[in-house]
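Anyone up for a design puzzle?
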C-alpha cells in the first residue's frame, strides 16, 4: 500500500501508538503513490456466503452510476444500491487513500451466527447457485468499471 498506492500518515501521539497502526487516525492527507491514479475502485465481497442483493458504494456521487449498472441485474435478485460506507478492514486503507470501495451486500446465511471466523466456515457450506450468481454480478461490476472512460468519482 505505502509503496504503490498511497502513503497514509498515521498519528504518532502516545495514545495513538498504543493502537494497531490501521486503527490510528489520519492527521494528514494521504500521499498518492505511482499506482493511485490507476485504481478506479476496490470491490469488497466479504459479507456472508449468500446471494448478492445489492451494493453499498460509500458515496452519494456513485449511486447514480451503480443504479444504472445494477438495473439489468434485477432478475438475479440484485436491486439495492446504497450510499453507505460499508468498507471493512480489508479495504479500509484504500478508502483512506480516497479510492472508492464498493461493498457487495449478501444474504448472510449463517455468517454472523455460525461460520464467520470459525472452523465451521468450510467448503461444504457453500451454495453453488449463490456462487454462480455472485460470479456473474462481480464480473459485470468489474467490467463496467474497467470500461469507463474515466475513473469512478472520488468523493473524499
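Challenge accepted. My sequence:
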Amino acid at each position: 500500500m505505502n509503496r504503490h498506492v498511497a502513503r497514509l500518515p498515521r498519528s504518532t501521539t502516545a495514545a495513538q501508538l498504543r493502537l494497531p497502526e490501521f486503527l490510528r487516525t489520519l492527521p494528514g492527507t494521504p500521499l498518492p503513490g505511482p499506482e493511485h491514479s490507476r485504481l478506479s475502485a476496490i470491490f469488497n465481497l466479504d459479507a456472508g456466503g449468500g446471494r448478492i442483493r445489492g451494493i453499498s458504494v460509500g458515496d452519494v456521487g456513485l449511486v447514480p452510476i451503480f443504479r444504472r449498472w445494477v438495473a439489468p441485474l434485477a432478475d438475479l435478485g440484485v436491486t439495492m444500491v446504497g450510499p453507505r460506507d460499508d468498507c471493512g478492514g480489508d479495504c479500509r486503507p484504500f478508502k483512506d487513500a480516497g479510492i472508492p470501495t464498493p461493498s457487495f451486500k449478501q444474504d448472510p446465511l449463517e455468517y454472523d451466527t455460525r461460520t464467520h471466523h470459525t472452523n465451521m466456515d468450510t467448503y461444504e457450506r457453500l451454495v453453488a447457485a449463490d456462487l454462480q450468481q455472485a460470479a456473474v454480478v462481480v464480473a459485470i461490476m468489474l467490467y463496467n468499471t474497467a470500461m469507463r472512460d474515466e475513473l469512478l468519482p472520488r468523493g473524499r
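A detail worth pointing out: The chain has two domains: 1-38, 39-147.
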